[in-house]
Amino acid sequence: MTAPRRQIRLNAFDMATPGHIQQGMWTHPRDRASDYARIDHWVELAKLLERGLFDGLFLADVLGIYDVHGGNPDAALRGGVQVPLLDPMLLVPAIAAATTHLGFGVTSNTAYEPPYLFARRMSTLDHLTGGRIGWNIVTGYLDSAARALGFEAQMHHDDRYDLADEYMAAVYALWEGSWAEDAVKRDREGRVFADPARVRRIRHQGRQFRIDAVHLCEPSPQRTPVLYQAGASERGRRFAATHAECVFVNGTKPAVVRALVDDLRARAAPRPILVFVGATVVVGRTAAEARDMLADYAAHADAEATLSHAGASLGIDFSRYGMDEPIEAGQTQAIQSNVEAMRKVAGPAWTRRKLLEQSVLGSRQPPIVGDPVQVADALEAWMRDADVDGFNLSRTVMPECLQAFIELVVPELQARGLFRTAHAPGTYRQKLFGAGARLAAPHPAAAHRFG
Q1: Are 58 and 103 within 8 A, CB to CB?
Q2: Do 94 and 319 form a contact (C-beta atoms < 8 A)?
Q3: CATH number of the domain that 122 lies in?
Q4: Range of the domain at 273
Q5: 213 lies in some domain
Q6: For residue 252, is it within any domain?
Q7: What is the pTM of this model?
Q8: What is the Cα–Cα distance from 297 to 354, expressed in whole angstroms?
Q9: How many domains in the chain?
Q10: Is 30 exposed, middle or buried (0-12, 13-18, 19+ CB in 10 A)?
Q11: Rounded distance between C-alpha atoms, residue 344 and residue 331, angstroms
């Protein structure tokens, strides 16, 4: 008997801001990203994704503003480069109420919010969504965020991951260890809502955090949310292999991504992980129509906004270099994996011109362009050659980019047996992994469960 083909996982990758990954697309006359502050914008997007059978809406976030380029935030402000920016967590209850199956991955930084407060926010969202919440764990990379929160500068790259390891131990203890599964009685006649003997005080004494408290929320459907993480540096991979259930990687070259995926799976074994690669798709009914759409979109790409975004994530002020002056990136406290990926793609001595030539739509992510068959071929090739499980689809012109993908590409993937024809039941974790709603050993969260 032939084994069933592995099916593609799909998230829409978005952010509550005018310009997310592809800088300048908000200027396109058909783009609706500028409606980011309207709740109906997000409700309609969530309904569209649910109809399209997507796994989730992956909501990025960042603290601070991009002020590396030119030493000020001017280019980011002019170009709407992830500013202005709303809190993604506040979007979730409204869009969850408009859907039944769609998962929500929200980004939150471990560096600046106490674990006790964060644990309650995530438990609240897990309750209100019926177990459809996930957490994209980030450690931050902007000095502007550190200054906004009262520090002179951010912690060193690896120190941020050390803090995050302790943060995870603290929230695991709150989510998994404070309330027994049978603690809540709801006994009206006996006048006992929760049995005190089945509720435990969490005492955490670490280098960074001290907690002496009962978790404020009763056990939610998943307890611990589905855990995403995107670090691809050596230290980031060690963290991902310990904690992450889903890993988000940048789509550079399949061979480069395959080496990273192999390493991540080996480190995490025997625990399974799902790997999502970032992708940008421009699809038309014909290849010619797709090429015309690409040219139309590319006319709106914003070079200065691109440099502002890239400079912040790479820790490089591109305004200090001429167009063809070699750029040698030294050690930075920004996203180290982005610097490494740029070197692999553009070579050791890359330039502003090389960067902008690669940024066809305002980002370093090369788009997949073609008719439905060509796009499906490309996605299938990524799964085969890089061993990824799915894709975080970046927006171009919204919402038509997702409408076109759902109308044209999804049926082609379904015809190949590569995509579901109906939503699976259960919580976000159950839908992704087909297992239980709660994390199980050998994941470290399971060790904190009420005994």
Answers
A1: no
A2: no
A3: 3.20.20.30
A4: 9-67+81-287+369-448
A5: yes
A6: yes
A7: 0.93
A8: 20
A9: 1
A10: exposed
A11: 16
